[in-house]
Design brief:
alpha/beta, ABC transporter transmembrane region fold, six-stranded mixed beta sheet, 20 helices, disordered N terminus, binds adenosine-5'-diphosphate, binds magnesium ion
């Protein structure tokens, strides 16, 4: 839904926004700047020390020079060290705070983006932004800024010193500046392009890796290792290739800039030597000038190099901001209820996931009075799951209205609405925590007794009693240490504890064998009593008791009635029924 653009449209704006995150820490950053000033000053003083050394030792033959120069050198490098430390530590402090803030914001945003956003984005890609891209932002906002300020200051200090020693020569050297900055600007553009490519390819690497790690059992049983190795190879190779393009651009940029600088240096040397020969310049001034000039090349080189992380950071920042700016879920209206009665109505509801993909639900009309059970049957792909996904507003209708207690769902505050709905579906999501914590998920206020009662009612206790650690047993990654039936019972206990007036069962038992299904049917029976229930089941035996059964096909309701009435009607339902019981 939000692919990162290949070239960031407005890098200046992105950068200003990133720096906006640094604003609260200006004070901390200024301490760093003090260190940078100290660092820059020591470079110019170093060139001055060369002048003192040569002038004192060879021209004035001052005996004190034997102490002054070595002590001066140690002092200078001590100060330089302090400057170096302060200018590294404090900006990094700011940078890590920015990372934390940005990462926290992005994570919070992930929790609030609409379901449709996740339909269109791979989790690997979303993870990649949270981990890899954000680290690049740190580089851009701190290291790059540090180098930029520190090295610009160093260059300015050295230039000032050059002017002080011999302004004509310095002015001549300065004419090169526009040429070099023009070069850097050109190189810059290609850096940004490659940076975006690298991040996109890193997202691909992450996506393939995540899918393969998640699906490792399927991969093994299909012997699909080679196929996945190939997909990974494509992403991996693209990543290597993009990185090499960037490295190439970076490797080229240094020699080019240095060569231009060297040509300038040659010109300066020519005039300087001619001045020395005509005795217009002293040798100590000449050597000191040369030292300062050579000292400029190091910060210059760093300044050129800094554009890579800077551009990477901007590309990364743009990709993060694209997510932060994506519209969050609609928060709904202002209506809040503690407990709904549970009257559900669908009035002339139509829905499509994407306008170009055709209708998934067409003109659905349904009423489920409070406390009643509606069963929905039909072929797979007929729209059953979509129909119930509208209840917690995972998606909103395109036309018509879904109502709870006679009010459109969109009138309720979203969290208040979702409090009214419990969902048990085929794929159970467990977190890597204890059984107890998984039952009480999202309901931290539940007491131990309530959790145990829910576990008892959902037949969770049946298998928990045999576990040495009982309810405090860890379930493993996504519940891997439990059987499908055990996981399902935990999700039912979760729904029992939630005690919502509306219950959705979407093929809650289809993954189970008959033995565990019998248990779970009993658990579900307890769960249904006193609630409005929408149950989707592919085993018709489980829906016979429903107050009404609707049969769906291609997004429409094609038959409706009680089990007995539908059998008597001898239509689609009767046919489905015959097929199941003859098989
Ligand atoms: N998240 C989605 N994005 C786009 N299309 C979807 C999505 N989920 C389901 N569909 C499509 O909508 C139709 C109905 O799907 P679904 O409601 O899951 O059917 P059922 O639950 O009856 O098997 C199918 O054609 C399916 O491909
Ligand atoms: Mg379904």
């Amino acid at each position: 839904m939000t692919p990162s653009p290949l070239v960031v449209a407005n890098p200046g704006q992105v950068y200003r926004r990133l720096l906006g995150y640094a604003r609260p820490y200006v004070g901390t950053f200024l301490i760093g700047v003090c260190g940078m000033v100290l660092f820059a000053a020591t470079d110019a003083l170093l060139a001055y020390l060369v002048k003192i050394f040569l002038g004192g030792a060879f021209i004035e033959r001052d005996p004190r020079i034997i102490w002054i120069v070595p002590l001066g050198a140690v002092t200078l490098f001590f100060l330089r060290g302090v400057g170096d430390y302060v200018s590294t530590y404090f900006p990094a402090l700011v940078g890590r705070r920015i990372i934390k803030a940005l990462r926290g914001e992005l994570f919070a945003k992930y929790l609030r983006l609409p379901v449709s956003w996740f339909d269109a984005t791979s989790t690997g890609e979303a993870l990649s932004r949270l981990t890899f891209n954000i680290e690049l932002v740190a580089e851009a906002t701190t290291n790059a800024v540090t180098v930029m300020i520190r090295d610009t200051l160093t260059i300015v200090a050295l230039l000032a010193y050059l002017f002080w020693i011999n302004w004509q020569l310095a002015a001549f050297a300065l004419t090169l500046a526009p040429l070099i900055s023009g070069l850097i600007r050109g190189i810059n553009k290609s850096f940004r392009r490659y940076s975006t490519r690298i991040q996109n390819s890193m997202a691909d690497v992450n996506r393939v890796a995540k899918e393969s790690l998640d699906g490792q059992r399927v991969i093994r049983v299909f012997n699909a290792q080679q196929q996945l190795e190939q997909s990974f190879e494509v992403a991996n190779e693209l990543n290597r290739h993009s990185n090499m393009r960037l490295i190439n651009a970076r490797a080229m940029s240094n020699p080019v800039v240095q060569l231009v600088a060297a040509i300038g240096l040659a010109g300066v040397l020519y005039f300087a030597i001619s001045q020395v020969q005509s005795r217009a310049m002293r040798v100590d001034d000449f050597m000191s000038f040369l030292t300062a000039l050579l000292l400029i090349t190091a910060p210059l080189r760093r300044l050129v190099n800094i554009f890579v992380p800077l551009q990477q950071g901007i590309a990364a920042g743009a990709s993060v901001f694209a997510v932060l700016d994506a519209p969050a879920e609609d928060e709904g209206g202002t209506l809040r209820i503690t407990r709904a009665r549970g009257d559900i109505a669908y009035r002339d509801v139509s829905f499509a996931y994407r306008a170009d993909k055709g209708q998934v639900l067409e003109r659905i009309d349904l009423e489920v009075p409070a406390g009643r059970t509606l069963a929905i049957v039909g072929r797979s792909g007929s729209g059953k799951s979509t129909l119930v996904a509208l209840l917690p507003r995972f998606y909103d209708v395109d036309s018509g209205s879904v109502q709870l207690d006679g009010r459109d769902l969109r009138e309720y505050a979203l969290d208040s609405l979702r409090d009214q709905v419990a969902v048990v579906s085929q794929d159970v999501v467990l977190f890597n925590d204890t059984i107890r914590a998984n039952i009480a998920f999202g309901q931290p206020e539940a007491s131990a007794a309530q959790v145990e009662a829910a576990a008892e009612a959902a037949f969770v206790m049946d298998f928990v009693r045999e576990l040495p650690q009982g309810l405090d047993t860890l379930v493993g990654d996504r519940g891997a240490l439990l059987s499908g039936g055990q996981r399902q019972r935990i999700s039912i206990a979760r729904a029992i504890l939630k005690d919502a007036p509306v219950l959705v069962l979407d093929e809650a038992t289809s993954a189970l064998d008959t033995e565990s299904e019998r248990h779970i049917q009993a658990a579900l029976g307890r769960l249904q009593s006193g609630r409005t229930t929408l149950v989707i089941a592919h085993r018709l035996s489980t829906v016979e008791q429903a107050d009404e059964i609707v049969v769906m096909d291609e997004g429409r309701i094609v038959e409706r009635g009680t089990h007995a009435a539908l059998l008597a009607q001898d239509g689609v339902y009767a046919q489905l029924h015959r097929m199941q019981f003859n098989a």
